[in-house]
Amino acid sequence: MESITLQDKNFRTYIPYTEIDKAISRIALQLNRDLKEEDRPVFLSILNGSFMFTADLMKKIDLNCEITFVKLASYSGTRSTGTVKEVLGLCDDITGRTVVVLEDIVDSGSTIANLLNDLRKRNPKQIKICTLLFKPAAYKADIPIDYACIEIPNDFVVGYGLDYNNLGRQYKDLYVID
Ligand code: IMP
Ligand code: MG
Q1: Which of 39, 84, 85, 151 has its Cα between 20 and 30 A from that of 103?
Q2: CATH class of the domain comprising 3-177
């Protein structure tokens, strides 16, 4: 599909799946190398946006690891609200373990900053951030982004798990607002 319409907005193809897949393979190689000595690292996927990224990345991960999910929300329409609601919490014990947070996109960084605040109270060994997309120009937090598959300019994108008002998550490619 060249272009899609979601509610009142038009989007055009931006990053095709083949390119997304290559970027994920590159990061998976790095994770497999960097974490091979870790004892049962926990991959913590942030729903809803990261579901597709998580599924594709984890198929390329060759580690003795666990996968778990939390659900957070900070967006309304095409703008970050700045406040992050934790919708569904974390029950797993991460004490003394390596946690890899899986995000669909890091924009202002407020979601990551809030989540890390919470996670650090649970005394993990270390927390790594892994995101499919990263908008360096919008980033305001001081947490290093350890693994970013693709850096993009400050544009609003949908598809491959990302939404506009909860629409458009199912598309295989990434689309940008027209
Ligand atoms: P942050 O808290 O400002 O870093 O925003 C992170 C969250 O906002 C992501 O997990 C997404 O759910 C959402 N978000 C940020 N940029 C976009 C975008 O371009 N398209 C769709 N969702 C986005
Ligand atoms: Mg999200």
Answers
A1: 39
A2: alpha beta
